[in-house]
Amino acid sequence: MAIWNKLRSELDRAGRVAQGALDEGKLRLEIFRARQLVDRAAQSLGYAVYRARTGSEGPDEAAIARLVDAVREREGELTTLEERMRDIGGRPPSREDADPGAPDRTEGAAPSAPGDAVSDAPATPDATAPGGTPPAP
Known about the structure:
The protein has 137 residues and is mainly α. 61% of the residues lie in helices and 0% in strands. It has three helices and no strands.
């Protein structure tokens, strides 16, 4: 009978681990979607500001205030989800986990404009090995 109790306890433990993994996966998906909402809200705000600055009419302060509030609300939701992820012991997915080609947007940093590209080229000509490839670390 002891073997059945041991088997049952191991199956229960495996079930809890699997359920935890499923819950973490769902939370990661929610975080990814929340980041998309933040990005869309920020993009809408950027377009509104751009139209206000380049158009002949002045900025619609009510619309801009509404968009700022939307960005703030979405960021609050994202922060809450990331805190839940930390509370369950996982690390919140980074931007690189979701999209390796996505630009890094840290708090307070403005997204780069198309003309603000930073070169990934080596700083000095001797930083590359013969043949144009970087030296192995």
